[in-house]
Amino acid sequence: MQVRDVLVSAPGKAILHGEHAVVHGKVALAVSLNLRTYLCLKATTGGNLCVNLPNIDTFLSWDLSELKHVIPPVSGRRDELKLLDPDLVRRLREFVGVTNGNLNTSQMATLSFLYLYLSVFGSGELPSLTVSVWSELPTGAGLGSSAAYSVCLAAALLCASGAISSPLNDWDHTARWCQEELELINSWAFQGEMIIHGNPSGVDNAVGTWGGMLRFLAGKIIPLSRVPLLRILLTNTKVPRSTKVLVSRVKDKINKFPSIMAPVLDSVDAISCTCEKVLSEMTSEPITGEHYNALEELFDINQHHLNVMGVGHPALDTLCRVTLAKGLHSKLTGAGGGGCGITLLRPETSSAVVQATVQDLKDCGFDCWETSIGGPGVQQHAPVSVKEEILEVLNRD
Length: 397
Ligand SMILES: Nc1ncnc2c1ncn2[C@@H]1O[C@H](COP(=O)(O)OP(=O)(O)OP(=O)(O)O)[C@@H](O)[C@H]1O
Ligand SMILES: C[C@@](O)(CCO)CC(=O)[O-]
Ligand SMILES: [Mg+2]
Description:
Elements: E1 6-17, E2 28-43, E3 48-53, E4 58-63, H1 64-68, H2 86-96, H3 105-121, E5 129-135, H4 145-161, E6 174-175, H5 179-197, H6 203-210, E7 213-217, E8 220-224, E9 231-236, H7 243-256, H8 258-284, H9 289-308, H10 314-324, E10 329-332, E11 340-345, H11 351-363, E12 367-371, E13 379-381, H12 388-395
Parallel strand pairs: 3-5
Antiparallel strand pairs: 1-2, 1-13, 2-5, 2-7, 3-4, 6-13, 7-8, 9-11, 9-12, 10-11
Helix pairs in contact: 2-3, 3-4, 3-5, 4-5, 4-6, 5-6, 7-8, 8-9
Bound molecules: adenosine-5'-triphosphate (ATP), (R)-mevalonate and magnesium ion.
Magnesium ion binds next to helix 4.
């Protein structure tokens, strides 16, 4: 079976408020970053499936005749994408050599890739192809790298199979899919996230798919079109952590102390709603210092709640302390337990203050950069629209 070559990208994300609480049915506010994951899918003729994941040092190849035996006998095209096919997951775990325990970085990425590949192509002839992925995002640091990866996989595999169109024409350098196709990409990306996260809310893959700022509640996605331009400083504490482990840690705490944790989750929900209200006011009336004071206080309160949930880390405490010494307010973003934090910069925050803060954070051993937010969701690219150094990595054998 011959498939079309595809080049796609999807953005990472920062969660302003609602991480973890969103897994338990509360509101989250999330925004895309201008840091992206790129995926290049190429049809080949060798009868192999190859995957190159240089960010995580994973380069694998399988014979298609071997892979065919992994497909469950009663596997067909599945329309219900809220649950994984347990039989396919079990067979794949055996195939990649994990029978129990938590998957490592490489196994998670491999399993989600093979799961999506076999789900998309399993009911027909398996195509010979090579998939290469390169990301500007740090892996496993709270910026939605798993979701950007899953969204790229879903878009590229569905597009290569012909299940969705190829929106790129001869005169555009980038193109986006229509709403219905984006919904399909998002639901397949959610399957990839389920393999990596265990029990994802779906907020990260929604941002990777649609981009911009979103309000997310129990699978319902509302794009926020009128939002002020926020200046955000991103800090990576470089403390490794796993979203899957942290999500299950919070769940255990909720099960152990339901009456204590329920009000905390309700309060985070109220923080997200209050933040949304403040952001909306900032677009409909003149922005004042009071708006920023409120946004900063919401960061502080939420950071305390996240510590109560057990997803803080001494490195994140250091981030909050060092930035507060410069009058700036921070919180963790994503799953916590290390990884990244966000610091709100006020319009009047001078570049001298930003530079001094960045230096102090670097002195703590952290990576730190001012970033713009609101990057577009998943896109198809013509090669000319992708930076040469990225293309070079994607095309390396
Ligand atoms: N560029 C990439 N190439 C291959 N696999 C990746 C890539 N980026 C992420 N992954 C997969 O996603 C996993 C990290 O997912 P995880 O959910 O723990 O972190 P995150 O998505 O960066 O943070 P968060 O979920 O808190 O936003 C990695 O272990 C790997 O399996
Ligand atoms: C921790 C979490 O809320 C956000 C991870 O970016 C998990 C999820 O929503 O799936
Ligand atoms: Mg993730």
